[in-house]
Amino acid sequence: MWVSNRQKLTAILATSLWLGALVAPGPAVAEEPYHLGVVLGLTGTGAPYSKEAVEGIEIAVNEINGQGGLLGKHPIKLFIRNTQTRPEVAEAVVTELIQKDKVRAVIGTYSSATSLAIKPICREYKVLQIATISNSEDITKLNPSPYTFSVVPNTYMMSNAVVIGGAKLAVANGWTKYATIASDYAWGRSSQQVQVELLKRVAPNIELVAEFWPRLGQTRFNSFVVAAMAEKPDFVLTSIAGADNALWRRDAREYRFFMKIANPGGLISVTELMRNAKTIRRGLYGRTRAPFFAHLDVPMMADFVNNYLSNFYRYPTDWAVMSYDGVYALKQGIEKAGSVETEKVKDAMKGLTINTTRGRLFFREIDNQLSASAYFGRVADDPDYAFPIYADLVEFKGPEIWRPEKEILAARRK
């Protein structure tokens, strides 16, 4: 079985802890603290993912500070702010973090709209921005900033994985028409556009019969469910996340939507797998960004899972994993630079290969996008867990699915 069992996890953990004890540096004299901003949607639709992201960040910071801080001498001081998943609020809190709290880097955010809103502010003040949840490809594709980095598989990468996996299912099942339902903001728009564009390339005979655009923060999806079913598509591609995603699935289940219409590649992260363990339909094909169970053979992931379990008595979600990796990406950039000075760190991070819970990955120089994988699979029960995970999980490596560089350059010239 491709999923590591608990015995394997324990063995990996014991080995990695033993090795860590051999090489752990001694305590160093603390110098100037490193002020790190965390900007997330702690209320509203982004609250579930954002809370889990903060937990991953706090574990990373505690680990690093336990070793004396960055470079062994700069303890990290966290400044956590709520964007309310509103761009104008994100702009205000980031400006305050920079001007008042003197943060050198900002990790976040939930909602691509908020990430795009703070990007020019971080650039103006020469502050690092590390995207760990928001993943519109426009964050790094257009108006590139040397201070902005993404550790998330972006919308093009995720959509490419969905299209490849979905097209195979379409051929196998004889599907000929589909509809899309996507949240009406930057992430939903970008995901839907790329999915339609790529599906047209790989399966031109499949017809798009309808598009539906619920607003961000939609609380009732009944009208969208009824309208989509009226079109009688063979399948529906959805791009809905956070609390909205849970409400969409709730309303769709009332109409037995998933029993009548296929929904391959909807966002089913570890959050949904755990929170909806009793109700989520087995056999659904979904996409996700950083499932812990795909990489338990990576010592860094094994350590993180154990630490997370010890602190929170549950497994880490994609959002915790990627946010944890975001802190360690910053740490390794600082180590490469040999300094906490932002200009040196952003130069060191460009093209840098780093260790993550998902393995050794690198930042592509043209857009500072990490070569993170995207994942597509079938929801199924597993005896090792009290919640379903993915069976037949396919990992699409970042360089296999990200947008070609020539297309990025062409988009920037427009």
| CA distance, first residue to last residue | 48 Å
Q: In DSSP terms, counting alpha (H) and pi (I) runs of 4 or more, how many helices? A: 16
Low-confidence stretches: 1-29
Overall mean confidence score, pLDDT? 93
Using only CA atoms, what is the Rg? Answer: 21 Å
Domain count: 2
**Number of E-type strands:** 15
The CATH topology of the largest domain turns out to be Rossmann fold
Can you list the strand order of the major beta sheet?
2-1-3-4-5
Given helix and strand content, the structural type is alpha/beta
CATH superfamily of the largest domain: Response regulator
CATH class of the largest domain: Alpha Beta
- Main sheet characteristics: 5 strands, parallel
CATH architecture of the largest domain: 3-Layer(aba) Sandwich
Strand content: 15-25%
Oligomer: single chain
The global form is: globular
Percent of residues in helices comes to 40-55%
Overall description:
There is one protein chain. By secondary structure, the chain is of the alpha/beta class. It folds into two domains: 212 residues, Response regulator (Rossmann fold), CATH 3.40.50; 174 residues, Rossmann fold. It is 46% helix and 18% strand. The chain contains 16 helices and 15 strands. The strands form four sheets. It has a five-stranded parallel β-sheet, sandwiched between helices. A four-stranded mixed β-sheet has the order 9-10-14-15. A three-stranded parallel β-sheet has the order 7-6-8. α7 links the parallel β6 and β7. α2 packs parallel to α13 and α3 runs parallel beside α4. The radius of gyration is 21 Å and the shape is globular. The N terminus is likely disordered.
